[in-house]
Amino acid sequence: MSEYKTIFQTISATAEAVVEDNGYYGNYGGSFIPEILVPAFAEIKEHFEAIKQDEAFWKEYCSLLADYSGRPTPLTYADRLTDYFGRAKIYIKREDLNHTGAHKLNNALGQAMLAKKMGKTRVIAETGAGQHGVATATAAAKLGLSATIYMGREDMERQYSNVFWMKRLGAEVIAVDYGSRTLKDAINEALRDWVSSFETTHYVLGTASGAHPFPAIVSYFQAVIGIEAKEQILRAEGRLPSRVYACVGGGSNALGVFQAFYPHDDVELVGVEAGGQGKGSGRHAARIAYGEGRAGVAQGFKTLFLQNNDGQMNDTYSLAAGLDYVGVSPILADLSERGRVRFTAATDTEVVEALEIIMKTEGLIPALESTHAFAGAFNDITESSGSDIFIINMSGRGDKDIFNVAEGLNDDEWKAFIRRKARQFEDGAR
């Protein structure tokens, strides 16, 4: 427990360094909300500031992280992957070993506890890959809150295993059937719910986006990732890494692992976006790496969005549902503009190739979202030497992606299995 108290004292210092009073991070951020939600945001700000000083809150939160979620997660030396490339030493931060299989639980537990502090009895959330939905449903069950999760129909089809678990955990899952039927549309629908329910309901935003103070809250609860990784690499190697890689959809896992390294300019921070079918294809979610994101205001905040000349949001695409988002955290947009984070993108093809390498060399199955971070590191690794150290944040595990991966690998045995199961269900229905 004393170790976690030290960690969260560090979180306070780290997170405070990047949060501005007006909710802006350079040119991005802010709060563009309907008047009806002004009291809800004021209540959240007040209680968020209060819990930072609340010893009882942190004692309970740290206990849940340690004894329920399973923190600290390991920093695994990938010796066979390192030998495979013969360049930089590769370490992997294992957020896949959190309970529920992803970094999302760090934030969901914190915000569910915040909801109870505010006297709320219900939480709502949006989810793309489903991991945030599962984490929110889990936290709600653990803390005795009811939960409603919004999810685009397209994402539900891609990540049905997580839909199954959310429902079994007691959450109501509502499909969103308009727009691109992905994360952007799920966020819009969750906001509509919140407008009419905020007196009893807290919106557990899953990524470091949205109106102030949500980017600050999410990055605050995720900062534990980088704080642990920094301590672990110093213990293992006696020095800091050369580079830290993380995938970027909205940006919660990237900000989680990056924050502890902000003060160390010799550590390069690399965000890897969803390159989808490549630059110029119109089927990707690379807002910064492809230089196509333009400043705009939507969903309550100002950031770089993929939009057309009329300011309408473009449809996005990625093999990884959790990265299929039209905007990016205002904190990351600012860090990119200031040159503190370098952005690159990995295409679907590069991601599938990277996944096969990771599975066969390390026996690990990262989520497709996390595999973007690996693919970005692999694309860069020929420029490195044996004296370099890479940390790759494996933000989640890939069990949920079995249908997409099997399809991506064009696996004939998997196709035959699906056909057999379909025939069994059809025969049973007759």
From TrEMBL:
Lyase among keywords:
yes
The entry's cellular-component GO terms read: cytoplasm
Q: What GO MF annotations does this protein's record show?
A: tryptophan synthase activity
What's its catalytic activity? Answer: (1S,2R)-1-C-(indol-3-yl)glycerol 3-phosphate + L-serine = D-glyceraldehyde 3-phosphate + L-tryptophan + H2O
The prosthetic group or cofactor this protein requires is:
pyridoxal 5'-phosphate
EC number(s) per UniProt? 4.2.1.20
Q: Pathway involvement?
A: Amino-acid biosynthesis; L-tryptophan biosynthesis; L-tryptophan from chorismate: step 5/5
Q: Does the keyword Lyase apply?
A: yes
Which ranges carry the Tryptophan synthase beta chain-like PALP domain?
Answer: 70-390
Sites where N6-(pyridoxal phosphate)lysine occurs are at K104
* SUPFAM superfamilies recorded: Tryptophan synthase beta subunit-like PLP-dependent enzymes (SSF53686)
Task of the protein: The beta subunit is responsible for the synthesis of L-tryptophan from indole and L-serine.
> Cross-referenced NCBIfam families, in alphabetical order?
trpB
What family classification does the UniProt entry report for this protein?
Belongs to the TrpB family.
What assembly does the database describe for this protein? Tetramer of two alpha and two beta chains.
The molecule here is called Tryptophan synthase beta chain
Question: Origin organism of this chain?
Answer: Paenibacillus sophorae
Give the encoding gene's name: trpB
